[in-house]
TrEMBL record:
It comes from Carboxydichorda subterranea. The keyword Kinase applies. Keywords: Kinase, Transferase. This is FGGY family carbohydrate kinase. Residues 259-441 form the Carbohydrate kinase FGGY C-terminal domain. One of its GO terms (molecular function) is kinase activity. Transmembrane segments: none annotated. Residues 5-247 form the Carbohydrate kinase FGGY N-terminal domain.
């Protein structure tokens, strides 16, 4: 009898469920999409019930690939974060979920900054994440202030993937890393003093588990919908970016990962010790930390330029878009794009930032504009990597690219040229699914097993070396890219 693992990755635009062999081969994967609504400027919401319908449908589809002698030994979860799902005692959502790209909690972020200084926040949470509008604590305070009827009926506020865990197991919990800025990620606990100071009820906080710990077993009801066998252990898992780091095998010194999805997430792992809460490093796993972070747009910038400059965005065709970009020489004849279409997170953390096309002339055509967008996203990756390299004190010698964007040979090469580094494509593009499956296979209470599982289950596939002919040009344009933001940042108006 062969053992298999199920990895579930609840992303921004779709959920992906994979059936994974113990050696890391993804035997089958299925995806189902759902919509994001923007009822007001800066708001981003999704319906939790749609997440579950999509997850159950995708899981049922991949279970068709389970061999007759196959046995599912575990389920692992990965998910977009931070998000907020307010649920009643019976697990029913009390309203739409607030997802990671939402900026509504600006007033609450300022209030938190006035009530809790950075040193105190590091003591309460274990690191110095900024109290901005995307901070989970800011959004939690927004819910308490603006949705009191929800809060009065709430049993807990969960992360998106924790809502899936609840549907699978009837158990409410979260992991310490998904609870960043709310829980202390190193000590794995909540500090009640923080919530007392902010007037937040601690009753909203779910139990904290380590990502490899079992939250519960698949119930008979969930099994009927997903076809995952009843009684299968479900690991609580963690943030999709964390799972993608595991699924990319980027635990080695000097190996960075670029998770190319709706937005980009860039990370460089270190075992630097002792850990300092104000170092700019994010806790990843016991003894491991990373520098980097998420940008606000990635592939979404390609969808924007398609709809804005070429044709109807509903018929988005990445092949046509790449062919258009290839009509321009590298460097887009000096055109530089700041991809801050929805503000920016790492490395500038400015929700008021906006996109810029610099050096535009009447010589530029659609091909230059499109290439500039591809290159602008690549510059944002380089910018985050530059900051991450300084924070960890280590040079980067290769970048492993994963996620949907890694399927594009053209974009991988653009990134290699802009970064001046080899870009390594992995055998599996679904690194978050694989990372979730790795957690599913990690024994409870044995986090030290992670490295062995990663080494066994992750396979690099193809290398894209940088074209040295373009190095000087891209080095110069990257300096222009950074100088642009410095020149215009004070001109952005609050929105």
């Amino acid at each position: 009898m062969a053992d298999f693992l199920v990895g579930i990755d609840l992303g921004t635009s779709s959920v992906k469920v994979g059936l994974v062999a113990e050696d890391g081969r993804i035997v089958a994967v299925a995806a189902r999409t759902y919509e994001t609504s923007h009822p007001y400027p800066g708001w981003s919401e999704q319906q939790p019930e749609e997440w579950w319908e999509a997850t159950a449908s995708a899981a049922a589809a991949v279970m068709d690939a389970l061999p007759a002698d196959g046995h599912v030994v575990g389920v692992g979860l990965s998910g977009q974060s931070p998000g907020h799902v307010v649920v009643a005692e019976d697990g029913t959502p009390l309203g739409p979920a607030i997802i990671w790209s939402d900026w509504r909690a600006g007033d609450e972020a300022r209030l938190i900054s006035n009530l809790v200084n950075p040193e105190e926040m590091r003591r309460y949470t274990g690191f110095g994440f900024p109290a901005n509008a995307s901070n989970p604590l800011s959004r939690l305070l927004w819910l308490v202030r603006h949705r009191p009827t929800w809060i009065a009926r709430a049993a807990a506020v969960l992360q998106p993937k924790d809502y899936i865990a609840l549907q699978l197991t009837d158990r409410m919990a979260t992991d310490q890393y998904s609870a960043f800025s709310v829980a202390h990620v190193i000590e794995r606990c909540y500090h009640p003093e923080l919530f007392d100071r902010l007037g937040l009820p601690t009753s909203l906080l779910p139990p904290l588990l380590s990502p490899e710990e079992t939250v519960g077993q698949v119930t008979s009801a969930a099994s009927a919908e997903t076809r995952i066998p009843e009684g299968t252990p479900v690991k609580i898992g963690t943030i999709d970016a964390w799972c993608s780091i595991f699924g990319a095998g980027a635990l080695l010194r000097g190996v960075a990962v670029d998770i190319a999805g709706t937005s980009e997430v860039i990370a460089l792992v270190t075992d630097q010790a002792p850990y300092q809460a104000d170092s700019g490093l994010m806790p990843l796993w016991p003894g491991l930390f990373f520098a980097g972070g998420p940008t606000q747009v990635g592939a979404s910038a390609l969808h924007w330029v398609w709809g804005a400059l070429l044709t109807d965005r509903r018929s988005f065709d990445p092949v046509v878009l790449e062919q258009t970009a290839q009509g321009s020489e590298p460097g887009a004849e000096g055109l530089v794009f700041l991809p801050y279409l929805r503000g920016e997170r790492a490395p500038i953390w400015n929700r008021h930032a906006r996109g810029v096309l610099f050096n535009l002339t009447d010589r530029h055509r659609a091909s230059h504009l499109v290439r500039a967008v591809y290159e602008g996203v690549a510059y944002s990756v380089r910018h985050v990597l530059e900051v991450a390299s300084a924070a960890t004190g280590q040079a980067v010698y290769e970048v492993r690219v994963t996620g949907g964007g890694s399927r594009s040979a053209f974009w991988n090469q653009v990134k290699a040229d802009v970064l001046g580094l080899p870009v390594i494509q992995l055998e599996s593009h679904e690194s978050a699914v694989l990372g979730a499956a790795i957690l599913a296979g990690c024994p409870d209470g044995r986090p030290e097993m992670l490295s062995d599982l990663v080494q066994r289950m992750v396979r690099p596939a193809r290398s894209y070396p940088p074209d040295i002919r373009h190095k000087a040009r891209y080095d110069r344009l990257f300096e222009t890219y950074k100088a642009l933001y410095a020149a215009v940042k004070d001109l952005y108006e609050p929105v």
